[in-house]
Amino acid sequence: MERNPSPMLKIRFKDGSQEPVALEAPGKTIGQGGVNDIVIDRKGVNGFHADLKVEGDSVTLTDVNTKIGTMLNGDLIEGPTLVRAGDTIAIGGVELEVFEEQVATESKTLVLSGTALLDIGTGGWSIVVDSGPEKGQVIAVKEKILIGRALECDISILEPELSRRHAELDLIGDELTLKDLGSSNGTYVNADKIAEVVLKDGDVLRFFKVRFVVSAPS
Q1: Cβ(144)–Cβ(115) under 8 Å?
Q2: What are 45-75's pLDDT values in tens digits?
Q3: Which conformational region is residue 35 in: left (phi greater than 0), alpha (psi within -120 to 50 degrees), or beta?
Q4: I want to staple 150 with a disulfide (CB 3.0 to 4.6 A). Which of 24, 28, 113, 164 is the partner?
C-alpha cells in the first residue's frame, strides 16, 4: 500500500533527555512539576511557565508573566509569538527544539470503474470494503466485476502483489461466484486459497492486504 508523508510538529529537549512531544491541539504547557506536558526542573522556572497553543497548523508560544522570561531563537518573547519548525525555545538555560516529523498516512487503495460504480439499489448482492482508508465502502454486484491491479479493471487494487487481472466476481442466477484468474499470489476466501467458489453471506475475500465482506440479498 502506498503511503504519503504528512508533517507533524514536535518539540524535544536538545540534550535528548526526554522523549519528543507532539504539538497537538489544544496545546502543551511548559514548567516545573509533573502537571505540565513538558517538565523543566530548574531553579527560576515557574510551576506554569509557558504555554504552547495549537490551532490548526498554527502554534503560538506565550510566557506566563515569569521573572526570567521565555526566549525564542535568542530573543525574549513579549506576548503570543508564532513558533515554526527549526525554532529554539530556551527557559532557564534549557533549550527545546521545534521540529517537523514526517508521519506516514494511508493513501487511496481502490479505484472503481465500470460495473463497480453501479448504484446499490435494494436487496442485491454487494461486497463491503473491510480494510484500508476505504473501509466501509459498499460496492454493488449486479453483473460481472473484474478485480486486479490494472486500472482498466472494475475494481483496481493498487498493490504490486496483485496480478493485473487477478480475479472475477460473477452473478449467475441467484448465486455470486468468485474465480481466480491464474493470479501469481492467489485469491483467498475465509483464509482458504480458492480457484472458484460460490460465495455466501459473511464470506471474507482477501486480495493480499485488501479485504471485502460479502453481503447477500436481504
Answers
A1: yes
A2: 999 999 999 987 789 999 999 999 999 999 9
A3: alpha
A4: 164
